[in-house]
Every structure is written in structure tokens, then in C-alpha cells.
Specification:
Strand order of the largest sheet: 2-1-5-3-4
Distance between the termini: 38 Å
Order of helices and strands: EHEHHEEE
Number of helices: 3
Number of strands: 5
Structural class: alpha+beta
Radius of gyration: 12 Å
Largest sheet: 5 strands, mixed
Shape: globular
Amino acid sequence: MAKILYFGPLADLLQKESEQVPLSAEIKTVADLLAHLRKRGNDWALYLSEDKIQVTINRQFGNMQHPIQNTDEIALTSIRRRV
């Protein structure tokens, strides 16, 4: 199972700091993972859109197309956009 960490305001908004998530064969990239998590609905769909998230995989910055696997530690935090 992949370890998912939620940081900053994202942890407060989702009321979760971490969890273990089994990655099915269909979840191959960060974008796939976010789409999977958004299926939880409500706040998950609102706060986990790809344009609002910064990600690290095994403590290295990544992007939405970065491949992931069940042994990875994936950290998510929200990006603050300037207006």
C-alpha cells in the first residue's frame, strides 16, 4: 500500500493527516491517484483538483504524470494561487 500524507491546510480541510491506500492496477500516476481520491466526493473532489495540489513522491518533487507504485510515500499539499 502507498502511504499518502496530507500537509498544511489540506490536512485540516480533509480532516486527515495520512493514510495507507492500496493502488490498483489502474492507478499508475499521481493524476490517477487524485482522480481515485476525488471519487470520495464532497471536500475530496473540491480540494484535490490537479491545479490545486503540489506533490512529492518519496520526498522528491513530482508532477501529475509521475508514475507511482504501492511502495511509495506520496505527500500532498495545497498550492496557494495569487490573484
